[in-house]
Design a protein that fits this description.
The complex is a heterodimer of chains A (147) and B (430). Chain A contains five helices and five strands; from the N terminus they run H-E-E-H-E-H-H-E-E-H. By secondary structure, chain A is α/β, with parallel strands linked by helices. Classes of the chains: A alpha/beta (147), B alpha+beta (430).
Chain lengths: 147, 430
């Protein structure tokens, strides 16, 4: 959905944002200090948990985007599988070192904001983004006066 | 030069759909191993589908992938309709054609203009394109084309991603004629840009020849919705028999399975479609794509990008014609009573042939699901081609440090979607 939102917002965001890590857009990504990290997807392995914790340690704020990140979403549907299907998927969970339960981000790290929905709800994302743009003084807060 | 040993490892390959690592081993100047270690986590969608109502399950499988959601929606609906012997109206089929044209425009545009174009311009990202002049204009055009595909999907499906309107038997809502005219105008407005991009990908000199069998649906109007399964060897396969020609197996280092056709790797996707059916493209596309079309049939993997660029023009031309001639009438909703049955649905997703086989129980719930995903079908071929490419570059004297970019370019040309490829359990179909 983020890539779809670029259609209308790319040039505005390019002026306002410094994309530090965005594998869908570029190869040379750096996970260094970030003002806000927008993270999609749920957590189902140590590899993902460690990466999320690293992101959290580098970011002043962390926003979960999409159902999987906010609630576990479709990724977590296996948490509620009946026993006869759980037995079938168990060897795969073991083979790939996957957790028995898929976790939303806030079960692993502190999450400052959520943009829920599958796909995420575009106006909510824009509102959250605007909040942080104002917080970091990238755009002027409403009612703010010139210094 | 030929007596050295080294390994190449690319972690989290960028500018593709989903996550994979790549590994190549070279010993005594010879490639001895090459593989995509797909590391997307399994989400077990085929298991999640079990027990869900057959008339609603399309909204679950749509979530397999945001990028390809419309393809899963359409193929699943088609499969359930085949199981329940539901005949969609002519208008419904035309609306589905339009949804798939919209999907291919936005999906191909994302892949070509955001993922591949930077390689041609020797840049890491479109973010590095100049802020003015030619490069700036190109990025503008890229988003305009992509956006027009999104508009078409939204017009017909209510939303471009996880569209709410398509149902078994028809659509919840029919577009208004005036909105259809507006989107037709938008599509006409971006056609010249789409043609310009074809020229860029045609002039691109990236080259890697592969030797394989190409498979795609073939019909009279280069539609993604129906047709006979054809191979580049001239074989015609009925939908019900396709799965019998394939062998599915576990790729031990990858969370995605692999497929072989008659015991050999094969390729699906835009290049397969173009190799098999270029004569059926829209007449306006054929008229304006004379030189690029002469490249097909092609064995150059990078022509998959060119084929996608041409398909964008074909989708624009086909969509405009439909939008302008259709009446968009309200139709009575079909009354559908699910029953114990089994169905097969086959269509062309942007990345190639997509196959659904669903069985439905007496209560109208899904009993079993078997899916064949395009990227899984290309998995074996891609692994082998990565090795062959490195060997070719090695023999030509290229150093190890320049190899990763060459590998990345090749994988991007295949346009894999790891999200789609990994979310199924091995299924024993009886």
């Amino acid at each position: 959905m983020f890539v779809e939102m670029l259609n209308k917002n790319y040039f505005a965001w390019k002026e306002l944002l410094d994309f530090r890590y965005c594998a869908v857009l570029k190869s040379r990504n750096v996970l260094d200090e970030m003002d806000v990290a927008f993270v999609e997807g749920a957590i189902s392995s140590d590899r993902e948990k460690e990466k999320l914790e690293l992101i959290r340690s580098k970011a002043k704020y962390l926003v979960a985007i999409g159902s999987c990140a906010c609630t576990g979403g479709p990724s977590a549907q296996r948490n509620d599988f009946p026993e006869n299907i759980k037995v079938k998927i168990d060897p795969f969970l073991k083979r790939w070192n996957l957790y028995e339960k898929v976790l939303p981000l806030d079960k692993v790290v502190k999450v400052d904001d959520k943009v829920d929905g599958c796909p995420m709800v575009e106006p909510v994302f824009l509102k959250v983004l605007d909040k942080y743009l104002k917080e970091f003084g990238v755009v002027k807060a409403e009612g703010a006066k010139d210094a | 030069m030929h007596n050295h040993n080294f390994d190449i490892t690319i972690k989290n390959l960028s500018k593709i759909e989903g996550h994979t690592d790549v590994e190549v081993e070279v010993r005594d100047g010879k490639v001895v191993g090459s593989r995509m270690r797909v590391n997307e986590n399994k989400r077990f969608f085929t298991e999640a589908a079990v027990g869900k109502p057959a008339l609603a399950v399309h909204q679950i499988v749509s979530r397999i992938c945001g990028t390809c959601s419309v393809a899963h929606l359409m193929c699943c609906i088609n499969c359930v309709e085949n199981a329940l012997h539901v005949e969609p109206s002519e208008q419904t089929l035309a609306l589905r054609d339009l949804m798939l044209y919209g999907l291919n425009i936005r999906d191909h545009a994302m892949h070509l203009y955001l993922f591949c174009l930077p390689d041609i311009f020797k840049k890491d990202s479109v973010l590095e394109f100049a802020d003015s002049g030619y490069e700036h204009d190109l990025v503008h055009k890229a988003f305009d084309v992509k956006s027009a595909g999104n508009d078409l999907g939204t017009l017909i499906g209510g939303r471009a991603v996880h569209a709410p309107f398509p149902q078994v038997g028809g659509f919840l809502k029919i577009p208004k004629k005036e909105d259809a005219k507006r989107v037709a105008q938008t599509l006409k407005g971006i056609r010249a840009a789409a043609v310009e991009f074809v020229d860029i990908f045609h002039k691109c000199d990236f080259h890697f020849d592969t030797d394989t069998t190409y498979i795609a649906l073939r019909n009279k109007r280069f539609s993604y919705l129906d047709g006979d399964l054809m191979t580049s060897d001239g074989l015609c396969i009925g939908h019900n028999n396709f799965r019998h020609h394939l062998e599915k197996f576990v790729v031990p280092y990858s969370t995605a399975p692999g497929f072989e056709f008659h015991g050999r790797p094969y390729m699906v996707g835009a290049m397969s479609r173009m190799n098999i059916s270029k004569d059926t493209l829209h007449k306006d596309t054929v008229k304006d794509m004379g030189k690029p079309l002469k490249e097909f049939p092609s064995a150059n993997v990078f022509h998959n990008n060119l084929a996608q660029a041409i398909e964008i023009v074909h989708c624009i031309d086909s969509a405009v014609e439909l939008l302008e001639k259709m009446d968009f009438k309200e139709e009575p909703k079909k009354q559908i009573k699910p029953k114990k049955s089994q169905g097969i649905g086959v269509m062309e997703a942007p990345r190639g042939t997509l196959y659904y086989n669903l069985s439905i129980d007496g209560d109208g719930k899904i009993e079993n699901a078997d899916l064949v995903i395009p990227t899984s079908q290309n998995h074996v071929k891609m692994d082998l081609d990565i090795g062959a490419l490195v060997q070719e570059k090695l023999d030509a004297g290229m150093g190890k440090e320049d190899m990763p970019l060459e590998i990345e370019k090749l994988i991007r040309a295949y346009d894999p979607c790891m999200s789609c490829a990994t979310h199924f359990l091995r299924v024993k179909w009886k």
